[in-house]
Design brief:
Helix content: under 10%
Distance between the termini: 28 Å
Shape: globular
Number of helices: 2
Order of helices and strands: HEHEEEEEEEEEEEEEEEEEEEEEEEEEEE
Structural class: mainly beta
Number of strands: 28
Strand content: 25-35%
Largest sheet: 17 strands, parallel
Number of domains: 1
């Protein structure tokens, strides 16, 4: 029996977690790197919209979807205890609603896709979400920040036009995640370039990086995210700056790589992170990547810059105990061209 078949049998049914709110804390507990100010949480002390009136019952999917459609600074008033909002549909950003959108869960809110739905979507080039410029793939807004919140049980496998991104799908503007947790999210299981069990990103304004700060993707067995490529994160032509974050128990479950091998559906690269494109940078500071697994290439990281102009920076990180895959020309578990510029400072990679 092939490894790919074992994975498909093991994870063919996306069963929601019973205790997502009680999952691992946000961030790498050993991460001590000081991130730049632009990677920090935004001020949500004066919200534009508050979801809920103080009771858990008032914090519904409909209320959250309506809030995201209006934009602005969104917080929650669902009571003093952790609360899960079960999503019956995807919350979608309208590009003309507001230039700044901040979603702050206050450390108490879990958004659950129930194993059926993607949770959050922003696309500056989707006419249904209203075009706001003539250069939709390179505009400075909306600027979406998610912070102090958990995304669990997102599932985008039914999406056909905008594949990938089990919890969050992004194109254009800017995106940042701070103090967030991503548990048991899933995207398409097969395909040479589809991916991002938790997050999928295309295009950022002026090729500025996506910031991920103090987030957890998985964190323990049974909580990991998975998809064809990039069990946690996937992108094309996008740079990432990631600080003090934990990636563990995520899986890339496709088979055959990109371009796909004969007789396969393609995919299976980047157990935690999948980066493809041209000039781009993957920067990791104070992060831990362990216990991620893969079928094809890059049990921790898959980074292919087609014109050989991209680069990787790894500082104060631990990358170890990731399994599977092949094509590791320089460092274990990292698949990249052997001439890709990679800088490693004060880090363990084994």
């Amino acid at each position: 029996m092939s490894l790919a078949f074992v994975f498909s049998c093991k994870k063919q049914y996306h069963k929601p977690l019973e205790n997502a709110a009680d999952g691992p804390a946000a961030g790498n507990p050993d991460g001590t790197y000081t991130p730049p100010s632009e990677a920090l949480a935004e001020d949500a002390s004066t919200p534009t919209i508050v979801v809920g009136d103080g009771t858990p019952e008032s914090c519904t999917c409909e209320a959250f979807v309506d809030a995201v459609a209006q934009g602005g600074i969104i917080t929650f008033n669902c009571g003093s205890q952790p609360h899960t909002i079960e999503m019956d549909e995807t919350a979608k950003v309208f590009n003309d609603a507001s230039e700044e959108i901040i979603i702050d869960g206050g450390g108490l809110i879990t958004l659950s896709g129930k194993g059926k739905h993607r949770i959050l979507y922003m696309n500056t080039c989707d006419e249904n979400q209203n075009w706001t410029t003539s250069h939709c793939n390179d505009q400075d807004h909306p600027r979406l920040t998610v912070q102090n919140i958990t995304f669990a049980d997102g599932n985008s496998t039914a999406e056909k036009e905008y594949e990938g991104g089990g919890a969050i799908w992004i194109r254009g503007g800017r995106f940042k995640a701070v103090n967030c947790r991503f548990f048991n999210n899933v995207c398409a299981h097969k395909g040479p370039d589809v991916g991002g069990g938790a997050i999928r990103v295309f295009d950022q304004y002026q090729d500025l990086p996506v910031y991920i700060n103090n987030c957890t993707f998985g964190g323990k067995e049974g909580y990991g995210n998975y998809g064809s490529n990039g069990g946690a994160l996937s992108s094309i032509g996008v740079s990432w700056s990631i600080y003090n974050s934990l990636f563990s128990y995520n899986s890339a479950i496709g088979e055959g790589g990109n371009p796909k091998q004969k007789g396969t559906k393609g995919g299976g690269s980047g157990g935690a992170i999948y980066n493809d494109g041209n000039t781009m940078t993957l920067s990791l500071y104070g992060c831990k990547l362990e216990h991620n697994d893969v079928i094809q290439h890059g049990s921790s990281i898959f980074f292919v810059t087609n014109d050989h102009s991209g680069n990787i920076h790894i500082e104060d990180c631990v990358i170890q105990n990731n399994t599977g895959g092949s094509w590791y020309p320089v460092y274990p578990s990292i698949s990249m061209h052997d001439d890709t510029q990679i800088t490693v400072i004060n880090s363990t990679i084994e």
